[in-house]
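Hi team,

As requested, here is the filled-out complex form for the thiamine diphosphate run. I kept the field names the same as last time so the parser does not choke. Let me know if anything looks off before we queue the next batch.

— J.
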Amino acid sequence: MQPTLPVHNRSDDTVLTPTFVPGPSDARWMPPALDAALQVRLHDLMVKARATEEMLIRMMRTGHGYFWIGGPGEEAYGAALGLLVHKGHGPAYDYLHLHYRSSAVVLAMGSEPIDLLRQMRSTVTDPYSKGRNFVNHFAIKPWNVVPVTPTIETQYLMAPGTALMQRRHGGIGCSIVTGGDAGSAEGDFYSAMNWSTRPGSELPVLMLVAQNGYGISTEASTVQNTPHLHQRADGFRIRNARVDGNDPIASWHALVEAMDYVRHERKPFVLQVNCSRLYGHSSSSGANRHDEPDCVQLYEKRLVDDGLATQTELKLVWDKWNSLLSDALKVVVAEPMPGKEHVLQHVWYRGPAGN
Ligand SMILES: Cc1ncc(C[n+]2csc(CCOP(=O)(O)OP(=O)(O)O)c2C)c(N)n1
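And here is what came back:
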């Protein structure tokens, strides 16, 4: 028997209107204007993601979860990306092949923080894996978010698969794939670029490489002979660019330019986003705070300097999300873990006890 989900107050302000409503011919992609309201909204979403990640780390430290890995430091470009996704189900919409630092992306798309807490604690109410996978491993079928894999970079080579379908389907939907700099040294990254550029069969894939300078404890400069990994795309004649991923405004504009190209030219684009890894690799390296540029702090200073927010208003945003997260934790700690009756659910096994 499936447990009944407890009622949880949803944070209604996370419900987003679609960035683009497809017309009969999917005429032209129209990203929303980055006006003052949207700049403030970007901050709200970045804090939503940061506060959620810091709660996940607290859960790991206090016995409400085991292993933590996540995205503090990737909120700026992540929030911008989440808002720009053409969100929906099926080939007319974007497919997302994300990695384990993509919390800001799915939270900006409208996911609820409580669901990340559920996966952190491995409760049966975890909507992404029913308590089977570790945190930040999303799978959201109604939004074409394909399951995040713990194996790094395999997602790069899956993206051309959904993009091939989208090429045949037509329209403006594209396949978006994110990953890290170390993983981009692996063969899947190069195979993905090759599959996306077969003459006459070019594919609408937006490939993002988050350059944080490390692969676990290995410095990037000891593995690849350039920090400008986007230039690897030159060899495949793929259009490419690099942006300060700690700057949500710059990231927004870079993403709009790249997406506009991929959606309408139906060809790939490689975008490198330089960002920080604020709590190290994962709980296996301690999940302690590192002294690197903090995109949320940088953006808050800018919002105040530009007269778009006051310190008091910024604090209210933090208070709102921290309070929502505390309430969410109280709900999640009371939820059940998977039982033996769940073992054969949602698996390929088709026997008497399966479904
Ligand atoms: C195929 C594969 N090889 C190795 C690993 C072990 N591993 C996990 S994370 C990681 C480093 C990834 O670094 P990077 O791609 O730069 O991403 P980051 O964690 O820095 O965001 C490695 C080697 C793995 N999970 N999968």
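Two things worth flagging: The beta strands are 95-97, 175-180, 205-211, 214-215, 218-219, 239-244, 269-274. Residues 36-61 form the longest helix (26 residues).

Thanks,
J.
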